[in-house]
Design goal:
- The complex is a heterodimer of chains A (471) and B (70).
- With 471 residues, chain A is an alpha/beta fold.
- Helices cover 39% and strands 13% of the residues of chain A.
- Chain A is built from 16 helices and 11 strands.
- In chain A, a hairpin with a 5-residue loop joins strand 10 and strand 11.
- Chain A is globular.
- Chain B has 70 residues and is mostly helical.
- Chain B has one domain.
- Chain B contains 3 helices and no strands.
- Chain B has helices spanning 6-16, 23-44, 56-64.
- The chains are: A alpha/beta (471), B mainly alpha (70).
- Chains A and B meet through helix 9, helix 11, helix 12 and helix 16 of A and helix 1, helix 2 and helix 3 of B.
Chain lengths: 471, 70
């Protein structure tokens, strides 16, 4: 029988609810795992051992009293270190906020609390969620559980490695240019970047108020569906949170994908594709077709425009938020972060507002053109094997933009469009590192993406494979 | 009066903002500005004048088409 720490999030919640295992036993099993693997992975920046035990004990007491329980009752999870809780330090991966203690609680944390989750602590991340590699000069790089010399991807780097390394049943991340989908794809787990506005951002550190999204990373599709259902929905504290009703994602997982249409762009996203990765992605498409999906090739519009427009919006909004610190605490930023931020000063107000103003029109044109004939678009996560940390630790070198741009080449355009994107594990390279693809859908079509990924998961069983780490 | 090249004008913006600028910054910012402004020009050519008032969340809701529900 699998060790407790290897159970899925949904199975663990079920076992606790059925009183086959206590929340405290589960929490102790995970804490023991963390003790063995944290040094290798550097996933956590703060481990709240006492708090987790106390919450788990309270969850067990609640169950013993016969009280109503939530869908995550007693399940230990963790989150990127950018969500606020009163009195609890939130570093945002930075030196500048090393001692910051907010006085209010993020809506997503409030919803996880209400669902009964046990918080294990805070996960490592790229400084201020800026950077797709997982390198952090203040708290150290995170390490890929499948080969610790290799990058985890970022910026939700700890969120990816903690779930893949089986030291948390699920995690939260944020995605402004690929920061959920990259670490998920690179670490071999699922990561959902929801539709813009699907999840409240109240009490979450901002990077780009137009493009930031919050979402889950998990080992299975069902786990991902459950976590998203818990955190999604309108929020009186966040006027940008969408009012659209939240689907019952789990109930819609098993519908099969016969007849669903998948578009595969032949331009941009496949440029410079590594042959091994390309072959794995073609095999995944073959599997989806075998399951009944109708796969067709197409060209997609605006990819060059989307990169430039996204760059203007993100860099201008990022340096707007950091302007004061950049002038007065310049040296407290990592060289890479401040170098990226400075680009935002170079755009005028008119250019920034043009980039914002044209967004609805381009999104509508893209959706009309692409999703008129498709239910999802299939994209790579990375076009090359997962690089070594040493090869992507570019600091503020002259090739910084080129290296970082190659990593987020396939994820970056989706944020400007505001569309949902799910990172799906698609096997492993010969060197044993994960390969992933993205499924991108219409606005609020997260359920369709989960359904496709679930059919693929049942067929391939990729999440069953475990990294070789101390148990 | 000779016009200042766009790249140099943008670097001047950065300096005027009171932010320190290295030689590497100059190179990166120039490249970033050039490619982003080309993309912006391609995206907005002839379209913005007729852009109706709208917010992005409303557009997303209209484009959702009910897909994924039920």
């Amino acid at each position: 029988m699998a060790e407790i720490a290897d159970w899925t999030l949904v199975d663990t919640a079920g076992a606790i609810a059925a009183r086959k295992v206590s929340a405290l036993e589960v929490t102790e099993a995970i804490l023991a795992r963390i003790a063995k693997r944290q040094t290798l992975l550097n996933a956590f920046v703060r481990i709240d051992t006492d708090g987790a035990r106390a919450t788990a004990k309270a969850a067990d007491d609640q169950l013993a009293r016969g009280a109503a329980i939530g869908p995550l009752h007693g399940v230990p999870i963790a989150h990127k270190d950018m969500f606020y809780r009163p009195g609890v330090p939130v570093t945002c991966g930075s030196a500048i906020r090393r001692d910051f203690r907010p006085d209010y609680r993020a809506t997503v944390l409030a919803r996880l609390d209400a669902a009964g989750a046990v918080e294990l602590g805070a996960l490592n991340m790229s400084e201020f969620a800026n950077g797709p590699t997982g390198v952090n000069v203040h708290y150290g790089a995170t390490h890929n559980p499948w080969n610790t010399e290799h990058m985890t991807g970022g910026s939700s780097s700890g969120s990816g490695t903690a779930v893949a390394g089986r030291i948390a049943y699920g995690s939260l991340g944020s995605d402004t240019g690929g920061s959920i989908r990259l670490p998920a794809g690179v670490c071999g787990v699922y990561g959902m970047k929801p539709t813009q506005g699907r999840v409240s951002r109240y009490g979450a550190m901002g990077l780009s108020f137009s493009l930031d999204t919050i979402g889950p990373l998990t080992r299975t599709v069902r786990d991902c569906a459950r976590l998203l259902k818990v955190i999604a929905g309108s929020d009186p504290d966040d006027p940008t949170a969408a009012m659209a009703p939240v689907d019952d994602y789990e109930a819609m997982l098993d519908g099969g994908i016969g007849g669903l249409r998948i578009a595969v762009p032949t331009n941009h996203y496949w440029d410079g594709m590594d042959s091994e990765i390309g072959a794995a992605l073609e095999a995944a498409l073959g599997t989806l077709a075998k399951l009944g999906a109708r796969v067709h090739r197409c060209t997609v519009p605006y990819h060059e425009e989307l990169r430039g427009l996204g760059n203007i919006v993100i860099s201008a909004e990022f340096c707007t938020l950091h302007d004061d610190w950049l002038r007065n605490q310049h040296d407290d930023y990592a060289p890479l972060v401040r170098a990226r931020m400075k680009q935002g000063y170079a755009f005028t107000a008119v250019e920034y507002l043009k980039a914002v103003q044209v967004r609805p029109r381009i999104t509508k044109a893209f959706v009309d053109e692409v999703f008129g004939a498709a239910d999802a678009v299939f994209l790579p996560v990375l076009r090359f094997p997962v690089p070594k940390i040493a090869d992507v630790d570019v600091r503020d070198g002259l090739h910084m933009n080129e290296v970082l741009g190659s990593i987020n080449h396939c994820t970056w355009p989706i944020n400007y469009l505001g569309l949902p994107g799910l990172s799906v594990p698609a096997g492993f390279s010969k060197s044993g590192l994960p390969i992933g693809f993205q499924l991108v859908g219409r606005p609020f079509a997260e359920a369709t993406l989960f359904r496709m990924a679930s059919a693929y998961e049942r067929e391939t069983g990729w999440p069953e494979r475990q990294p070789s780490l101390p148990s | 009066m000779p016009s200042v090249p766009v790249d140099q004008a943008r670097i001047a913006l950065l300096r005027e903002a009171g932010v320190s600028v290295s030689e590497a910054d100059v190179q990166r910012v120039s490249l970033s500005v050039r490619s982003s402004l080309a993309a912006l020009q391609a995206a907005v050519s002839g379209t913005l004048f007729d852009t109706e008032p709208q917010t992005f969340d409303v557009v997303l809701r209209r484009l959702s088409n009910g897909v994924g529900r039920g």
